[in-house]
Amino acid sequence: MKSDQSMIEGEGGMRRHQSMQRLAGSEGPREPARVVQDEEGNLRVTVKKTKPILGIAIEGGANTKHPLPRIININENGAAYSAGGLEVGQLILQVDGTRVEGLQHQDVARLIAESFARRDREDIEFLVVEAKKSNMEPKPTALIFLEA
């Protein structure tokens, strides 16, 4: 579980992840992402659709060496960057309540694009986890050579 040091108190007692602070004062008024940590250490990040693009790039999916999609870039002209909350390196577990485990890369990308394009919602919600906290990612192994 993430330490309390990485969480900050927001309006109405809502806890916000420290990544919310990364853009403080960089642009005019903005609608910050809501970030709520669950009991497993996952972060539920809600991003308002304040820009024409979401602005994230992902790698991974069931048909790749990374079974879960990972955020590899956040474009500074997108809603995700303006809101904060999402970070490069996070693994995506859900998009608007739909689990992405087992989906191929192009299906995850399509799900994200279609969720962002929906006109009936003014936000998009991600359930993410830091890569090191996921047991879905391959673990690095070390080879040890002993000399006789």
Description:
It is a single chain. The strands form three sheets. This protein has a five-stranded antiparallel β-sheet. It has a two-stranded antiparallel sheet with strand order 1-2. A two-stranded antiparallel sheet has the order 5-6. It has helices spanning 79-83, 105-117; strands at residues 7-9, 15-17, 34-37, 43-48, 56-59, 70-74, 90-95, 98-99, 123-130. It is of the alpha+beta class and 148 residues long. The chain is built from two helices and nine strands; from the N terminus they run E-E-E-E-E-E-H-E-E-H-E. The termini are far apart. It comes from Cryptolaemus montrouzieri. One of its GO terms (cellular component) is cell projection. Its main location: other.
Distance between the termini: 42 Å
Low-confidence stretches: 1-28, 137-141
Report the helical percentage: 10-25%
Strand portion, in percent?
A: 25-35%
Shape: globular
Structural class designation:
alpha+beta
Largest sheet, if any?
A: 5 strands, antiparallel
Number of helices: 2
The mean pLDDT is 79
* H-E string: EEEEEEHEEHE
For the biggest β-sheet, the strand order reads 3-4-9-7-8
What does the radius of gyration come to? 17 Å
Record field, number of beta strands: 9
